[in-house]
Design brief:
By secondary structure, this protein is an alpha+beta fold. Helices cover 35% and strands 23% of the residues. α4 (113-130) links the parallel β4 and β5 (133-141).
Length: 334
């Protein structure tokens, strides 16, 4: 007899996964979230926007790329959920938007309830850190397309910003200071190169190079630092003109996206020490510096462009919030 379960889809396992994740998802709830009894949609009370003169909605979507393969190989799943929030929500922060809510999508070869609950639980925990609600999601079982232990994740987020307060290149001027906020590691970009290095050198996920305090696998799965609330705090303090989320393309390419055409950023490479993890990958993989620059964040996860007279206060604020930061450079006329 043919059945859906015989085809590889286990509805009961999906329902069990939902039950396991419920309590952690509930922690991310914001006051504006409205329950939908059917569970088909996430509802958010838009009357909260009445405090804005001209509210603009900001949206972003992303995944965590091939980092999920390392999570699968190590059997650690909650950190990639955390990464997903960093990739999606911190993009919203770049324009000055307050993150409101997020949804997720997980595709897997086989629903293992505990694994799905760990992934979604990590997403929910990171939403708490970012100040947004996880209002819904979908888990899809794709037997025959993905192996039983394979999965991929993606998400979308929505935020709101006052039209007159949007941050970006039009605010940036020559003389502005560039402030770096430290990354927590590789974050979620460049893992195809990381996996290539692992496949072609003597490095393994279990390797423990002298330069590192933990195994290479543990270092590589360090979750992405989430900057949304720190960026909002900086913006509220005044003097912020733009942010740049340092993701794919590295520091130069992402910072350039936040600058007007008649300016450029001059970065002082001596202002920070590139973390040992990147040096290990570079040395073992024989990766040219130019390739490192355009692939990895190299220790800078977010950059803020601020008025020169606001730089010291911004550094003090970030230090008070526990975010390692430093003066990275300045904006000059092209």
């Amino acid at each position: 007899m043919t059945s859906y379960e015989a085809a590889g889809v286990d509805i009961a396992a999906g329902e069990r996964a939902v039950e396991l994740m419920k309590s952690r998802v509930a922690r991310s709830r914001r006051p504006e979230v409205v329950d939908d009894a059917s569970g088909f949609a996430g509802l958010f009370d838009a009357s909260a926007f009445l405090r804005y003169k001209r509210p603009l909605l900001a949206t972003s979507t992303d995944g965590v790329g091939t980092k999920v393969d390392l999570a699968r190989r190590l059997g650690i799943y909650d950190t990639v959920g955390h990464d997903l929030v960093g990739m999606v929500i911190d993009d919203l922060a770049v324009c000055g938007a307050e993150p409101l809510f997020m949804t997720d999508y997980i595709a897997c070869g086989k629903v293992v309830p505990e694994r799905i609950a760990d992934i979604v639980g990590g997403i929910a925990d990171a939403c708490v850190l970012a100040g947004c609600a996880l209002v819904g999601g979908e888990t899809a079982e794709h037997p025959g397309l993905l192996e039983a232990d394979e999965f991929d994740i993606a998400g979308a987020g929505t935020g709101v910003v006052e039209a007159d307060d949007i941050l970006g290149s039009e605010r940036v001027r020559a003389g502005d200071a560039v402030i770096a906020m430290a990354s927590s590691g590789v974050h979620s970009n460049g893992y195809s190169l990381v996996r290539h290095i692992l496949a072609t050198t003597d490095l393994t996920l279990e390797s423990h190079p002298d330069e590192l305090d933990r195994s290479l696998g543990e270092e590589l799965l360090t979750p992405t630092r989430i900057y949304a609330r720190d960026c909002l705090a900086l913006t509220a303090a005044g003097g912020v003109h733009a942010f740049a989320h340092i993701t794919g393309g590295g520091l130069a390419a992402n910072l350039a996206r936040s600058l007007p055409a008649n300016t450029e950023a001059v970065i002082d490479r001596s202002s920070w020490e590139i973390p040992p993890l990147f040096r290990v990958l570079q040395a073992h993989g024989d990766v040219p510096q130019a390739e490192m620059d355009k692939t990895f964040n190299l220790g800078v996860g977010m950059a803020a462009v601020v008025a020169p007279d606001a730089a010291d206060a911004a550094l003090r604020l970030l230090a008070g919030r526990g975010v390692p930061s430093w003066l990275l450079g300045e904006i000059v006329a092209r």
